[in-house]
Amino acid sequence: MDTNKKLIIKIGAIFIGVLLFLTFFSNTIYNFNLPSVVVEYPREGAITRTATGQGVVDFTAKDSYYAKIGGQIELLVAEGEIVAAGGLLYTVTAADTLDEDIINLKLSKAIADKAFAQQGLNDLRAGKSEYDQEIEKARLAMEAARKELADLRLLYEAGAIAQKDLDDQQAAFDSLDIQYQQQSERKQKSRQELEKSVRDLQYQIEEYELALLAGAEGEITVTAARSGIVREISGGVETGAYISPNELVMKIGVSDENLLAVFALPENTDYLNIGDAVTVSIKSRNIYNAPGEITRLIMEDGRLKAAVQFSAAAHVTGGETAELKVHNTSALYQNIIPLSAVRSDTQGEYILYAERVKSSFGYEYYARRADVWLESRDNYNAALWIYSARDRRPVIINSDKAIVEGDMIRIVSGSDLVETR
Q1: Using CA atoms, how far apart are residues 138 and 127, in angstroms rounded to an integer?
Q2: Per-residue DSSP letters for 185-212?
Q3: CATH code for residues 35-47+333-420
Q4: Is the pTM of this model over 0.90?
Q5: What is the mean pLDDT of residues 393-421?
């Protein structure tokens, strides 16, 4: 009897052990079939956005050279050639004999006309012109009319005069004000015309002096005003050709000034401002990360373009392809997570985080949803506002299977949950 009892107890113990083993083993197998996820806690940080674009290099300043006289030209430089200030550019041999008496007469008249225009301009600037006298008369008349209008307004308010008397005086004041404005505008217009006359007459004087020089020597030689690179020689202008007075001969990109390029940028580049610092590379010239500045933003055909000025010590002739790189670093955000953690559906953006739940066999983990507002993003990270977050939660940033809210999950290496490693 005792033997049978012991046997029954032993068989029961074995059965319970096997049952426990099978239960644990099947639970372990089940856990291994769960979606494996990697979690990460949100951290404080900044969002850094970058964008690249391509453009063609040009010069911000170009000196244009025009033929001062007509005649046969001889070019002393070629396109792409570097020239120093004072360097020879071209010569022009006069096409015909000049009548020096006529030129001298025109030169004398231009000098006299310029002196007369300059005196008129000086009088305007000093307030001594006829316009100034008329403006002063209009101003004094306006002051008198304003005082009379104020007196009539007091009488009207006291009931001593009719509305018509007040309206007539207001109309008279308004008329004087219009006269004052007109005289001021005439003075401004006269000043602009005189300034233009002085410039034009100075140009004529220089033209006549060059013509006299060409008539005496038979040719004139033109030199570079500033150092640079011959960027363009006009079509049809070549050694031996005949050119007309004031015809464009060439343009020189000034090397002492900054370079310029206009870059087309991606559509989502909406964070740039004029004055932002950028870097420019010209690989064909072995120029990398030259500092530059955005000087203009252009919206063309629905696409943003940025005009950038930059400097480069290496030899640049213009026409090279340049690459632009822009960086924008935001202020600090409270919640930064990898972009892979952000999900979306018809209700908006959300994240899934891991919640630990105690069970009969220890702890289990489940995916829970939290709605978020996407504050900013770059190519790798997102800055979020988590609506329901009152504490830090382990956010699911990756999984080997598709998961939805409520799914049981298994946390694998790479997470910040130390106790599960």
Answers
A1: 15
A2: HHHHHHHHHHHHHHHHHHHHHHHHHHHH
A3: 2.40.420.20
A4: no
A5: 76
